[in-house]
Design brief:
The complex is a heterodimer of chains A (114) and B (112).
Chain A: E1 5-7, E2 10-13, E3 19-24, E4 31-38, E5 42-50, E6 53-56, E7 65-71, E8 74-79, E9 88-95, E10 104-105, E11 109-113
Parallel strand pairs in A: 2-11
Antiparallel strand pairs in A: 1-3, 3-8, 4-5, 4-9, 5-6, 7-8, 9-10, 9-11
Chain B: E1 9-13, E2 18-23, E3 32-38, E4 45-50, E5 55-56, E6 61-64, E7 70-75, E8 84-91, E9 106-111
Parallel strand pairs in B: 1-9
Antiparallel strand pairs in B: 2-7, 3-4, 3-8, 5-6, 6-7, 8-9
Classes of the chains: A mainly beta (114), B mainly beta (112).
Chain lengths: 114, 112
Amino acid sequence: DAGVIQSPRHEVTEMGQEVTLRCKPISGHNSLFWYRQTMMRGLELLIYFNNNVPIDDSGMPEDRFSAKMPNASFSTLKIQPSEPRDSAVYFCASSLDNPNYGYTFGSGTRLTVV
Amino acid sequence: DAKTTQPPSMDCAEGRAANLPCNHSTISGNEYVYWYRQIHSQGPQYIIHGLKNNETNEMASLIITEDRKSSTLILPHATLRDTAVYYCIVRGYGGATNKLIFGTGTLLAVQP
């Protein structure tokens, strides 16, 4: 398996533009997680899906952020409009809904908003 | 709302065992202890987990105290490539508890 695949690896955009981050989880995994990492705040859980349904979005910072999982093999995290404080590394992770399975993380998308 | 306490940093000599402690005094009966690590600029990597018994895999050993209020991750022969931030996480199972909340972790520096 190729692992969790995120795209793009790097994104530089201007303030006010829409940004879409993409994630392909490991085939067969039914839980998907989006995290954001900054030096100031560390690793923060943004949203968690189980069987394509959002279970907990309490970490989504504000209405500018939205996430979707239209099917078991694809998820997006969208920021509209983007702001400089959104600059961070965004990680996607997937897992089975089973405590005996750890999460597998993707390589992340480094977002810079200028 | 991380439920664990870890030292911010530790040093270890290459080839020696690295013992990373974690306190989780408020852990409940159905919560597991997980360990992850993050090597600079990479995504976190799963290491090991346990409920109440000690566990061992090809990467590490996990020792959980009998009262489950603390645990120790052991890397038996640390190498320079083990330099990373190590996260100890308590996680429930089912519904909204099925999520990993990362704290600040322990930065392990393996010295040559």
